[in-house]
Write a structure and sequence with these properties.
Nucleotidyltransferase, domain 5, about 40% helix, 10 helices, about 290 residues, globular, alpha/beta, 12 strands, 2 domains, single chain
Length: about 290
């Protein structure tokens, strides 16, 4: 039996692809910054990354995408230009006709990765919350991935965390507008990397910005916790790298707004697999489907 597959993690900013063994070890990995000029340039980047690997002994290719797979098989990913109804599956089948491919939402792929090799081992009710360019959540209920009737379960970026409606909410949702990575730049006019660097030095203004971000995230998580009552919430995505700067404010907000019984035994932790969660999870899906 073939023992390796390819996992691709398409984010809102970068694309990463890796060769993964059936024990979860990443043997080789490449990363590129997304070319956002046209929709088809992004798919070309994905294919070019895949072609860097020898496909001869590959079991299959798993792709984690920051959006939803529609019933037509096309992709809806509002943070990628031109991906409101993008035929990625068709493109992959035409480019790699002899290799099995499977597309999954990045939030589910990352959850699967953490369940396989990370901090979610042993849990059956899990939320993997991605906060990066956008916001989404992979949901596992009673040991099974939950997708909903149209495959959009976990689109928590649309949670209402601010009663004052803005037109931007229609495209990306209220919670995402208020708490995803771009919100830092929008509020401060400064790059999030600059803010985090300043926070590392103890800069009070930077720490205040990130503390307020923790409060915004905490409000959204309070809704998720009270509705789903998970055992563990895992935070992934670029914003999770700032965890130590907003953990206190997030947990205080969570305690203030959540059902107290729902948080009594709740664990909330950053991803243990970090940037590798999407690649590992996408590869794991291939191992599961092709065995």
């Amino acid at each position: 039996m073939k023992e390796i597959s390819i996992g691709v993690d398409l984010g809102g900013t970068n694309i990463r692809a890796g060769i993964v063994k059936n024990n979860g070890k990443i043997l080789d990995c490449y990363e590129v910054k997304i070319n956002r000029n046209t929709s088809y340039q992004i798919s070309e980047q994905i294919c070019n990354l895949i072609e860097k690997f020898d496909l001869t002994n590959i079991l299959g290719i798993g792709i984690a995408i920051p959006g939803v797979i529609k019933s037509s098989g096309n992709i809806w990913a509002p943070n990628l230009p031109g991906w409101e109804d993008f035929p990625l599956s068709k493109i992959l089948h035409e480019r790699f006709p002899r290799t099995s491919t499977f597309i999954e939402s990045d939030r589910n792929a990352m959850l699967i990765g953490e369940k396989w090799l990370g901090v979610a081992k042993g849990y059956k009710n899990i939320v993997f919350l991605i906060i990066g360019t956008g916001i989404g959540a992979g949901l596992m209920l009673d040991g099974k991935i939950y997708r909903g009737s149209e495959g959009i379960a976990g689109s928590v970026g649309w949670l209402i965390t601010n009663k004052n409606y803005l037109p931007e909410y229609k495209k990306i949702g209220c919670f995402e507008y208020m708490a995803a990575g771009p919100s830092i730049t929008r509020k401060t006019k400064l790059d999030s990397l600059f803010i985090s660097t300043k926070a590392e030095t103890g800069n009070s203004d930077a720490l205040k910005v990130l503390g307020e971000l923790g409060e915004e995230i905490g409000i959204g998580i309070a809704d998720i916790v009270s509705i789903l009552n998970p055992e563990i919430i895992i935070m992934g995505g670029g914003v999770s790298n700032l965890w130590k700067f907003f953990e206190v404010q997030l947990k205080a907000t969570l305690k203030k707004w959540s059902n107290p019984l729902a948080i009594k035994h709740l664990r909330i932790v950053p991803s243990s697999l970090g940037n590798e969660a999407g690649i590992i999870g996408a590869a794991k899906i291939i191992f599961e489907r092709m065995r």
